[in-house]
Amino acid sequence: MIADAVTIEELKSIPFLHDLAPEHIQNLASIARVEDYPARSTIFSEHDRAESVYLVVSGEVSIVAFEPGVGCRQLTTVGKGEILGWSPMLERGRFTATAQTQIPTRVVVWAGSALRALCRKDTELGYEFMRRVADLLADRLLSTRLHMLKLRGIELPKVRLESD
What we know:
Layout: E1 2-5, H1 8-12, H2 22-30, E2 32-37, E3 42-44, E4 52-58, E5 61-67, E6 71-78, E7 83-84, E8 98-101, E9 105-111, H3 112-121, H4 123-151
Antiparallel strand pairs: 1-2, 2-9, 3-8, 4-7, 4-9, 5-6, 5-8
Helix pairs in contact: 3-4
């Protein structure tokens, strides 16, 4: 793992940060670093202290949880532009899953305490960042729900939603 400073251009290229004001990107860059992980590496483990928030720049990360009597089970896969390790944003003490790279992966890393402080200081950025985290988590929750239903042999009917 190699840690480097993150560039403004690298942050601008990440879909999660698309359309953020230049000063917000600059502020995020000032507290960020970049880490590279080889394939089949662990970024963090279930029950580790949740101290950093990660944003995937490139690569693919499996989110895996231990299930008693079953072993490890993959919950989802996270790719470019997605957050992992969001627990520090909510000041949760421990991670609830393990993040393992599938292929070589580059992530932007923010210390949770520094990111929270920045979001408190700049409430416009804080609102926008948390709104984007909430959107990602809502998508993951729906994906997990659909996956669990499929495992039980249940297919939901195709219904056009108002948001479609």
